[in-house]
Design goal:
The chain is mostly helical and 152 residues long. The protein is 43% helix and 0% strand. The protein contains three helices and no strands.
Length: 152
């Protein structure tokens, strides 16, 4: 049984109704602080507080469960950039420890703060596109629950 995949092949996960939710577009809209559904409404009401629903299309956004994943991504990105910058600076210029601290600590803090909201928006957009955590119209079902066993 041979099946050929084309560029227009679509991946449908679970029993969710088929509807176009491109992952890349949804993540991009989240990175830009926009609703992953319409791309018009603002995703965040405050710095990291996701609005319960989009003001434009009324898409429910309260289902998200971004939790610890955005900070993990931010730490990975900022850590690689700061470490690479530190190592390049150390190779080119002889600086004292205090000078390095004066340069790299503020860059680390500001970079982390600047990336946190866009990364969280991207994660919420990813969850929306993949219909995770209630975005698909059904409640989360624990995958690790064992079926009940009749021990009669």
């Amino acid at each position: 049984m041979s099946e050929t995949f084309t560029e227009t092949a679509t991946l449908h996960l679970g029993d969710a109704p088929i509807r176009d939710r491109p992952v890349g577009r949804s993540i991009r809209r989240g990175l830009l602080n926009r609703c992953p559904n319409c791309g018009e409404g603002r995703m965040f009401g405050r710095f990291l507080k996701v609005n319960d629903s989009c003001a434009v299309c009324e898409e429910a956004l309260h289902h998200h469960r971004a939790d610890d994943f955005p900070p993990y991504i931010v730490v990975t990105i900022v850590g690689h950039l700061v470490l690479g910058g530190f190592m390049m600076t150390e190779m080119l210029v002889a600086l004292s420890n205090w000078q390095h601290l004066a340069i790299w600590v503020p860059i680390t803090i500001l970079g982390s703060l600047a990336l946190m909201q866009p990364v969280k928006g991207g994660v919420v957009g990813l969850q929306w596109a993949l219909r995770m955590h209630g975005f698909g119209g059904h409640e989360d079902r624990p995958e690790d629950e064992l079926p009940s066993q009749d021990r009669a």
